Amino acid sequence: MRVQQVSIFLENKKGRLANVTEVLGRNDINIRALSIADTTDFGILRLIVNKPELAYQVLKAEGFTVSSTDVIAVEVTDQPGGLSQTLRLLEKAEINIEYLYAFVTQSSSAALIVFRVEQVDEAINVLKENGVNVVPGEKVYQI
Question: pTM of the predicted model, to two decimals?
Answer without folding.
Answer: 0.89
